[in-house]
């Protein structure tokens, strides 16, 4: 087994390798003057199970293209199998045609990963699970929830909790989270989206008065949805609001919204590498390296991935 890291989140790759007791594979990744990406493996992978760790976060196109070229380099170097480990899968949001003449980029990205030469994909908290069906190769879908649940269980927050889905589409995710968080009650924020990265909160389904609200989502991008929902929860009498998500995309003006004082704490994982200018006092970043490393080990040993979450 050999693990190589792209440039998108090398610290996470190093943690994964350390947990597995191996060194990261030696790889040269550089840009030519015109921006073209050059990749060269600097050690043999012939007959090896290769795992390439690369979230396709911002800059999305750069990181995705870098991953394609890494796959191609491994394929041409006679790797026995190539598994791409994508802690955050960009382009997964466009998973259907909501309007006429739209592209379904989730399917396109899946096709490109397959055509590049990958044999298997490991993704974490993909935006909608239907996108898993777009792959014609095996996909292992893992969840960041156990990391966040362990952290919340270690904190003395309140016995009177309510788990809140910031939109109707996240109800299944929030329900599963609530069941594992001491079987907490569930509330739903109904919203109507006006456009991309724009949303309008309409009303609350459920009771949050006098309770500590734990909002759960797969990602926070501009933070418009989750901040508007948190404002509504406060208006409805919630004592405190916590925001939890796996992927901290944090596109502007997310930092200003999240650090404005409405959230007691914003809990995310390190699926995306956050620079210092995207950190703020209420932010807690949890490592998902052990979870990803266990998944890699089970895949390598032909073990059950679902057993990790039981």
From TrEMBL:
TM region(s), chain numbering: none
GO biological-process terms attached to the record: 5-phosphoribose 1-diphosphate biosynthetic process; purine nucleotide biosynthetic process; ribonucleoside monophosphate biosynthetic process
EC number(s) given by UniProt: 2.7.6.1
SMART domains registered for this protein in UniProt: Pribosyltran_N
Coiled coil: none
Domain Ribose-phosphate pyrophosphokinase N-terminal: 1-117
GO MF annotation: an example: kinase activity
Stored InterPro entries: PRib_PP_synth_CS, Pribosyltran_N, PRTase-like, PRTase_dom, Rib-P_diPkinase, Rib-P_diPkinase_bac
Example of a GO cellular component annotation carried by this entry: ribose phosphate diphosphokinase complex
Catalytic reactions on record: D-ribose 5-phosphate + ATP = 5-phospho-alpha-D-ribose 1-diphosphate + AMP + H(+)
Family: Belongs to the ribose-phosphate pyrophosphokinase family.
UniProt cross-references to PANTHER family, sorted A to Z: RIBOSE-PHOSPHATE DIPHOSPHOKINASE FAMILY MEMBER, RIBOSE-PHOSPHATE PYROPHOSPHOKINASE 1, CHLOROPLASTIC
Protein name in UniProt: ribose-phosphate diphosphokinase
Annotated organism of origin: Panicum virgatum (Blackwell switchgrass)
